[in-house]
Request: fold
Amino acid sequence: MFISRHWKAPKFLIALFGLEFPFTVAALAFFGIASPDTYRTVLWNEGAKHGWNSNPNEVLYAAANYRALTVPMVWTSLYVSTFPLNDNLSKSAIDEILWISITNFNVVISVLSMFILLVKSVMYITHTFPPLLSLFVHALLVALYAVSIHGQSGSDMSDPQHPQPGAPWYITQSCSVADTSAVRGFCQQAKGAFAVTIIMCTIFALHIPLALYSLIPTRAQRHARTTSVESSSTETIDPKNMSPQSLMSYRQKEWEMGTLPRTPGTTGAMKSPMTPRTMAFNTLGGTRDLPLREHRGGGGGEV
Reply:
């Protein structure tokens, strides 16, 4: 059993590449604008004003009173820690923790997606992008974007008085509920970023069944593989155990290029194999009955 290295639906694969490019650019734009904290804290504060989620000021209160507070993943940004805050953390440790955020994670995966898209496009053009490699690459991308979807739509249960059991308000509600036009614009950007993330994850997920389908060899590929294996092992195979068709092919190859005698009259250590044309020539008399040579020989002299 072997796996195929050729794509069964190349047009569909090219269509996925073409569909992936504009949404990758959109993801770069959305996540680049959102980084490091363009609107996430603003949306968090807007939800707190309406009682839909916790209040971002709780982070400052917890830090001032040396209380541990785990910030929900959906609200993490460059300036908000994703780990419990306490007085035992050094400044260097806090700086390292603050870098870990859902906003920065989205920027990283969007840049990685563009890089992978360019590389795999070149590899496909040069016929060095097999389905097996595509399977591993897109499975990794699906996992990364699934984490991003989970982070953007996570719950906020840090405040028992204002729990948010599902996705944040800017996903579940209309942006018109915001108080100002600026917040409504930020809400629309967050919605767009979330939609692009889902679309990107869906596109990468479509690559997986296509790669799995292409890994299964066709009947023609299996036949060519079997013929190649039989051809490479003709010297060690026993003709008695061969099928009639394989035996006929084996005998034909033996007759043409294998065990016939060498061509007589050649000089040197290397001699040419006997071919059917040479064999017929020698059977008809070879060089003994050439009429032109006899004529010149009977002319009685050199020209």
Observations:
- DSSP finds twelve helices and no strands in the chain.
- The two ends are 71 Å apart (CA to CA).
- The CA atoms of residues 143 and 201 lie 8 Å apart.
